Structures
1.
Amino acid sequence: MTTMQPHTTEIAPRLDTRPEWKALQQLAQTDGALHLRDLFKGDSGRAARFSTEGPGGLFMDYSKQRITPSVFDALLALARACGVAQRAAAMFRGDKINITEQRAVLHTALRAPRGATILVDGRNIVPDVHEVLDRMAAFSSAVRDGQWRGHTGKPIRYIVNIGIGGSDLGPAMAYDALLPFTKRDLSVRFVSNVDATDFAEKTRDCDPAQTLFIVCSKTFTTLETMANANTAREWLLRGLGGDAAAVARHFVAVSTNAEKVSAFGIDTANMFGFWDWVGGRYSMDSAIGLSTMLAIGPDLFRDMLRGFHEMDEHFRTAPLESNLPAIMGLLGIWNVNFLGAQTLAVLPYDQYLDRFSAYLQQLEMESNGKHVTLDATRVSWSTCPAVWGQPGTNGQHAFYQMIHQGTPLVPCDFIAFCASHNPIGNHQDLLVANVLAQAEALAFGKSLQEVEQEGSAAWLAPHRQFDGNRPTTTILCPKLDPAALGRLIALYEHKVFTQGTIWNINSFDQWGVELGKVLAQRIIPELSGATPKPTHDSSTQQLIARYRAARGL
Ligand code: F6P
């Protein structure tokens, strides 16, 4: 437990007292009330004005956001006043900006080129990063080409990643996203939930002699991961006749905690490390991505890192007015803090990005779901919206009704690609036509008059009318490949950073997950042991009693 007071820079003015914030409040009353129909009608150059191309042809059209040039300028002024560029520079150079844990925040070092220098406590960490990458590459190649064999001499065919949160969501998302690039005769699975069903179903068809477990945990203490890792070890030993020596050929660990890894029984020679300056939700490009490297191979993994790095460099160097992550963050601030949006839908039009929104939920909500400022006072402004979504076109037939005609304002990020990995018939045209149509319909809607002109009866017309004016951003990229995925993730990482900086919160701790963990530890023995003393509230007590009764206790 840290008792030392963190060293902080001077206390920032309250966000809502800044003149730039007040200017935006004013603009929300005027420009914020304008309709996208009128904004487009009044400015033939609007699409070009509010679009930017970033690295790798990543094109972002945010002209369907409810902004005007004055709003855009005011948002940039806010970013300048809040020191987004200065704080980004502090992050990139390794200052301990995670003040509650007194840690540097250096996921960007994970994708720094070999010759770069980034100092943490006076030590250049870039060679350490590349040393681990090289070890991962040697190991991955050995598994992929069959040199690394299981205990009985058979090659590995099943990889099971055991981890949760940042030790699961990124790798699981990346495996799906990069499926066309994977070695298809290696089947990679992800076990995260402490619900035994997850382990049982994912290992159901695995041959223990050909299965490799990667136990991924930054801390190597997480309840779910340790429970699943123990179950995996029992499963393996049962399947291989109980010889404990088998563990060495079937288990590797990814962690920052060598001591716990070896206490678990995994030889630290089979451990891939990372560092406390990598947050769990920012770790998929560290050794936590070992399953990704096993699936796509070291060269493509490095391509992914190159994509990340390109977006890092863009964020670090591009002027604010053409800086994609900064603009994205600012648009979110406008929607949340000035237009009153409480959620953000992220809607990829690519089936391979099936798990992208789930990944972003942790990245955004664990980072910016905070109500205390860096100066330890309560915010009096909204922070992170709830992030949700799933790939189009499926969502169109489920929840889009609410986005079009419901009462909440739901800003959307659409993500689409020009080329498909499966160019069959005209599916890609159908897919892309749909994403463009949704953004158009959300922006412009359909007036009552138009509905009536189409012949709708007066009583029916209000039901068929669309207000429009629903803000969206469309990201259009050439094709989903490892580098494109890296760019896309870094885009969101730095967007989260921009917003955290403006909200003046620490995007890099997660104290809010602690209480539930502690209470669970207290309840675990009460579910199966001697009748617990009634120390809980009556509701919890009642539920415990009912569970115990159902289990015959
Ligand atoms: O409980 C939240 C959390 O700490 C996340 O921040 C983290 O990604 C996840 O648990 C898993 O942690 P670990 O990698 O240490 O097992």
2.
Amino acid sequence: MSRFPEVSFMLSAAAAAQFPADHGVEIAFAGRSNAGKSTAINAITARHGLARTSKTPGRTRLLNFFSLGTDRRIVDLPGYGFAEGPREERAGWAPLIEALRPRASWRGLFLVVDSRRGVGDSDLELIDWADPARRWIHVLLSKADKLNRSESMKAQAAALALLDGRATVQLFSALRRIGVEEAQQRLESWLQK
Ligand code: GDP
């Protein structure tokens, strides 16, 4: 049985006024476009097709909220870009995404980073924006099926060094189901706190 039997799509918010009421616990998912974020959400919640892996124009700038039960939510942030960093990108998201930041219910962030690229400046910027002193941050090094054992170890060590205590890190592959259980446990424990 799924750890998250009650998962369902709630709403796509185009404006802060549409956000669900700020109580309970909210866990965000973020990452560069194509990092594997939608695939990770689907694997972790065990709901194929919950988060859209194919890009639907017009929906990519929205914040998508999923319910995991009463007052328990996932919020799926827009993927940030290839050419520009999140700073420029955020100018487009703002004020929508900025409105998320002060929410008391937003307690943790899963940051999806392609394990072959490693943690980049844009990822570090996003982490600082999310405020690691205030929130749990956990990095999923995605598509780990593409790395061999020694590459995996190196990717993990490099990420830990760059993150410098701001986040925890794990290897993840939706395809080969590497670390799915670990990520589920992390999500579950955050939702209970
Ligand atoms: P998003 O833009 O971050 O939401 O990324 P998607 O979830 O749409 O995935 C981007 C691409 O990476 C797609 O072609 C996926 O099939 C691929 N992908 C996602 N997860 C994995 C994985 O675990 N292993 C491999 N090899 N490919 C993956």
